[in-house]
Amino acid sequence: MHENRTPQVEEQVLVRKAQQGDAQIFSLLVSKYQRRLKHFLRRFTHDDQITLDVVQETFLKAYKALPQFRASSQFYTWLCCIGMNTAKSMIAVYGREPQMITEIVDENGEEVDVLEHLSDYQTPEKQLLNRELIDVLGEAIDQLPPNLRQPIILFEINDLSYEEIAQIMGCPIGTVRSRIARARELLSAEVESRFEHD
Hints:
Keywords: DNA-binding, Sigma factor, Transcription, Transcription regulation
Shape: elongated
Oligomer: single chain
Distance between the termini: 63 Å
Helix content: 55-70%
Domain RNA polymerase sigma-70 region: 29-91
CATH topology of the largest domain: Arc Repressor Mutant, subunit A
InterPro entries: RNA_pol_sigma-70-like, RNA_pol_sigma-70_dom, RNA_pol_sigma70_ECF_CS, RNA_pol_sigma70_r2, RNA_pol_sigma70_r4_t2, RNA_pol_sigma_r2, RNA_pol_sigma_r3/r4-like, WH-like_DNA-bd_sf
Largest sheet: 2 strands, antiparallel
Number of strands: 2
Strand content: under 5%
Domain RNA polymerase sigma factor 70 region 4 type: 137-187
CATH superfamily of the largest domain: Winged helix-like DNA-binding domain superfamily/Winged helix DNA-binding domain
Radius of gyration: 19 Å
CATH class of the largest domain: Mainly Alpha
Protein name: RNA polymerase sigma factor
Number of domains: 2
Mean pLDDT: 76
């Protein structure tokens, strides 16, 4: 009787079976995370074909590295780590700089502006200036250095924890916290400077 299993426990069971060599179970994990991983990596590659190549390579690497996976981290977080490293390598081959873009795709396949989801900008007063504010924030996020742009989008949009972002970025949790705080400061300062005369 496993009716009370949480999704996390069910995932751990699937991963364990895949680690024991069950390729069909691994295919289930691929199906579960492929779309989400594709949208995540698309923000770095900014190119559909490169994204598809990176996703395919990520799952190949993950399958080979399954014996090394430890359940101390989420499977999806582990995939993101592999995916980001693969994206960096592949982008270098294609001769393009990795970058974030500010659109996400929701569960219906519709593009949604990431800026509308930044929690700090959801007060009723600020929503009165919503369209102009979003435009300003879009420019401000594009101007953030990658080491600040990446964690704030991972945190605000992907809803990843500080711990998960630290794993993906390969840096201490304290660094993630400070970079997110710094990104928010810069975004707030840019918004204030653009609207101070209104």
